[in-house]
Amino acid sequence: MFPWRHTEGSKSKFCAQRNAIERVTTQPAYPVIGRLQNGVTVSILTSPDSVITRITDRLAQSVGRQKYGMWFNGSTKFDYDDKHHRLDVKVPNRFVADWIGTHFKRQLHEAAENELGNHVNLKVQIDAETFIHQQVDSQVKPIQQQTTKKTIRKSAQRNRTAQHRPLRHQLDDFVVGPSNELAFATANQFVHKAPGPANTLFIHGGCGLGKTHLLQGMCGMLQQRQPEAHVHYTTAERFTNEFLGAMRGGRLDSFRKRIRRLDLLAVDDIHFLAGKQATQQEFLHSFDAIDMSGARVLLASDSHPKLIKKFSEALISRCLRGMVVQITTPDTATRIKIIRALSERRGLSVLDSVIQALASRSQGSVRELEGTLNKLHALTMLAQTRKADHRSDTVGHALLNQLFEAEHHEQPTRPVTLQMIIDTVTQHLHVSRDEILGRCRTRRVVLARSLAVYLARQQTAMSYPELATAMDRPHHSTLISAVQRIARAIDQNEIVNTPDCNPPMPMGQLVDDIRHAIRDWNRTAQPVHV
Q1: What pTM was computed for the model?
Q2: Is the pLDDT of residue 35 over 50?
Q3: Burial category of 250 from C-beta neighbours within 10 Å (exposed 0-12, middle 13-18, buried 19 and up)
């Protein structure tokens, strides 16, 4: 508690009474009814309740209605003693008292002086008993409520934006070949047929092979055929985030209603739910609710349902009850068709021999083909800007050779994979792949396994849990220890003695040798000049 006391000022009490009378006479709407004090008629507007009302009104105008509602309305109690000319401001705790004293001291003084004169005794005191029926931290509740409402509104707005964002892919743009024709035919039938007993389609395959294209294409096709249908495409990560946000924000019922009333739910990267028991349970119940209503469920994953580790048996059973189809790497003929389609979308005129060279060079995913076409398009635009007429010429072998030369010098033709790292380590330390992935604990095998994990963390984007899954480790904590052990050995320049393999050498040199071997292996595909 800290008192604010004012000493007697230059103005007399008569001046204060005269000011009160003048306020009454300038406001004829109020009756001039009162009592005699020293021969002067004083309005009832000078009663304690009316004085407090006018002081609080002035204070609200001075600090603003919003701040007044946060820190005074419900958090303070004003008491005016007319006899002793004293104004007490009672607060529930020290926090409110200190806050008002720091931020609103001047405004509170001005409001009191304007009504009562500068001779008023003003005091702020802590009186918890007065607020016995209020929470001790009531002064921050309006802020918390306002923040929560804003957060909910922003979250809901983001969810609505994500739901109504136009999908990128269309089913008509999908290039069909032997690697994906079964998946495409099943997708077409799934969209065009009426809902039946098998209302679930599970598509699996490697990254960048067209699973997302099919899912988004099916959603768009159904929405086009049935505009009134409730269709929702999402990823398993977004589903998890929305579920956790709804659970924290108390909006779980609305989340479930929105998901379970859908006519088609498409979830990409469903393997993301692996190991997330609460989210898997929620998705399972939503899955059953949608299936029982006769609606459809589309799922996509990098792996077959049975091969997703830490995936509940109930979800595996639901996935296998429907149609499960696989997409594999496209063959050369399909890659040629894909390159032609991508070139036409970009307005590129490409020679057939150049298309064949690109198809032979890029044997990975469709995304890799898209990246190659993007670079070729950029080189073409750059070549056109250097010409005076800016004509669009056919992409020939000169630009293709320039593209291959740039890829050879700037980056590897293939991304470094865990398999590539393990194979290089096995050749250097003369251990087998099965020993690295097995449970062998000999010194050489442990060293090889640790080096593989250390290099994988440096040269790939795989996380520790992903590495543990790929290397069949029950916990990723052992991998963290292995990386720390190798890093410590490099810092301390430890000598590695590997009998029957290599001569003793520092750990840093051994790591560099393996790293250079990986890079040389990755660049074995030399530029192709055609």
Answers
A1: 0.50
A2: no
A3: exposed
